[in-house]
Amino acid sequence: MRLELGKIRIRSAAFGNETCIREGKLWIDKEGLVALLKEDPRVREVEVDLAKPGDKTRIIPVKDVIQPRVKVTGKGQGFPGLTTRMETVGDGRTHALENVAVVTTGRIVGFQEGIIDMWGPGAQYTPFSKTINVVVTIEPVEGLKEHQHEECVRLAGLKAGSYIGQAAREIEPDEIQVFELGTITGNAKKYPQLPKVVYIEMLISQGLLHDTYIYGVDSKKILPTLIHPNEILDGAVVSGNCVAACDKITTFQHLNNSVVLDLYKRHGKDLNFLGVILTNENVTLDGKLRACGYATNIAKMLGADGAIISEEGYGNPDTDLMMNCRLLEDAGIKTVLITDECAGRDGSSQSLADCVQQAKAIVTTGNVSALVVLPPAEKIIGRAEAIANLAGGYDGSLAADGSITCELNAIIGSTSEIGYHNVTTKLY
Amino acid sequence: MTEKKIRVVHYLNQFFGNIGGEDKAGQPPISKDGAVGPAMGLQQAMGDKGEVVGTVICGDNYFNENTAEAKKQILELIRKYSPDVVVAGPAFNAGRYGMACGETGKAVVQGLGIPVVSGMYNENPGVDASKLAVYIVPTADSAADMRNALPKMAALALKLGRGEDLGTPQEEGYIPQGRRVTVFSDRIGSTRAVEMLMKRFNGEPFETELPMPEFDRVEPAPPVKDMTKANIALVCTGGIMPAGNPDRIESASATKYGRYSIAGLDDFLPEDYETIHGGYDPVYANQDPDRILPLDVLRDMQKEGIIGKVHDYFYTTVGTGTSVANSMRFGQEIGKQLKEEGVDAVILTST
Prior knowledge:
Chain A has helices spanning about 30-35, 120-125, 145-165, 185-190, 230-235, 250-255, 260-265, 285-300, 315-330, and strands at about 1-10, 10-15, 20, 25-30, 45-50, 55-60, 65, 70-75, 90-100, 100-105, 115, 130-140, 175-180, 195-205, 210-215, 215-220, 225, 235-240, 270-280, 305-310, 335-340, 360-365, 370-375, 380, 405, 425. The longest helix of chain A has 20 residues, at about 145-165. In chain A, strand 15 (about 210-215) and strand 16 (about 215-220) form a beta hairpin. By secondary structure, chain A is of the alpha/beta class. A 6-stranded mixed sheet of chain A has the order 17-19-14-20-21-22, with helices on both faces. In chain A, strands 8-9-1-13 form a 4-stranded mixed sheet. A 4-stranded mixed sheet of chain A has the order 5-12-10-7. Chain B has a 6-stranded mixed sheet, sandwiched between helices. In chain B, strands 8, 10, 12, 13 and 14 form a 5-stranded mixed sheet that branches. Chain B contains 11 helices and 14 strands. Helix content of chain B is about 35%, strand content about 20%. The chains are: A alpha/beta (about 425), B alpha/beta (about 350).
């Protein structure tokens, strides 16, 4: 499997008569986009806005973030199994718009949606303050139930990403990255001296509104599965969740999974990257035992010497993280865990809901309860009042002057547990 | 231009304050302008960068026997000097003095918003009592260490007095406060994870970013002897609240819990109750809140005589993202109230 990812750097964006890219400027046909999204009868109103880095703009409540892309050669277009016909992806040529993201917002579905500030202190906590954001506000028809509402907004975001991505089809990329792994048996012969590493990616799967989709399959119904990292980088995995904004893996982050990218960088040099085991986070003990045991067995069959395990969410999934760690370490597989912490607003509380002594190597991506103060915005896309009901906000979060005091919890991608951002904690 | 001199008030006990020994431990708080005893050493260590404008002295027994009153008096004495920073001790391994330094320090930080530096031996009870609020320089266990301790305390006091943020305990030389502070790394998390794994492969030393805590175990309570007479309470972390969430409890990272009457209520009706929990799909809970907190079934059991009664109040909060520290506090407070209210057993549901 060989994926060529062509990156097209976008320097500015504006609305125009057609969706296209000219000299690094993205033009978006707003009416065309709105018409496409309104094809879904569940969508009543669509608004499209632009938010640029440095603008004093706040986007709230954010549901998902998607990178605009197009498949140029090879199988699979868009997000197979969800927005397009089922075909596996990860092979051929894909073009991606760099520095651009589609951001979905609209009336709150679940409590766990977030904030993006494009400027000021809030901006440094989210990676999505650095992208030119095409903000799609979706208002559904009256009476739509939560699950339908979530699906409707999720699909709209994915479609918008593909719609804008089309503009990149004929554009010569500024940079082409090649992702090619070879076979597990071939690599074992090729790199006999290198330690073999598997990436175990835990996906939130706690029920509707807290799910992740793999080629359209609801991940709570899977047994842990081995997947080629290229498939993740090319659209196989989609966020469908209203998990806490700080550590939900948005679709953008699945497409640019930082653990996958970092393991690829060292593949063939310092380590032998075996592939990715996608596993889920179950709500029953039997489910946890089954998934963690099964994932460990795959890692053992692959002959892994080490594993990076990333969590999604916090609290209940801490038990899955620790169980994965314990089983793998006891099988002689060295682990490094990536998690965030719930250390309380003053940072003095114990951080995790579960722990095992085998968890000797942990990377922390921040305290979700750390308080931040976000100054008043000049422009709000969405609804500032939503903060009172978002995870990380509280009654009184929104001050009369428009400033917001909230926990990192509410800021999209701030404590990403795939290690996508650079927030961490230190013991004082 | 010369820098503004940092104004310092030094807190001492009767012994170091030159009032007297154990016989003077009942001395109420007094203040003296300028530096007394160790404050003179502090003054020397600060040089011309800071000035001890006053020394406040209180007997250890007086403080520990009249803590609330003593704190009030001491705060008043300190306030009139308008210091930039307060220094307390060092108390070495003297327990009562350490508690006085720690408690005074906490009161100054919380009541006056002025930073406080102290010095104590690691095992002094004053350390645990105050390290979250007060910066404590580790000292040896006796006053022989005064000469080492004062320059370190002086350095911290000057920094804090200038309003500078302190670095980590390792960098600055104070006892770790146990606070996890959010900072930015020069590398993203995934890069650090792969580096850490490589170190493990190569047998190099590595430092976990989150050491595992010690978990305490709770012994199960003895079984209820006679359920037919038992008063059973409902408690949950699943976020079931009266509609509209009257106490505005947070949907994640809860800092409070609610206590609501269910006297005479047979069923949690969806129009009157809802979940505000942000960590699970609320749809099914909102269709029938008894799915989270089974009041309806419990009422049936009461009517059938299987249990004595359902307690008149239920306690409820949100578990997702709620810190262990807050959870422990909720548990202790709720447990105490339940005991006072004559509850025999609790059905505790989570989600």
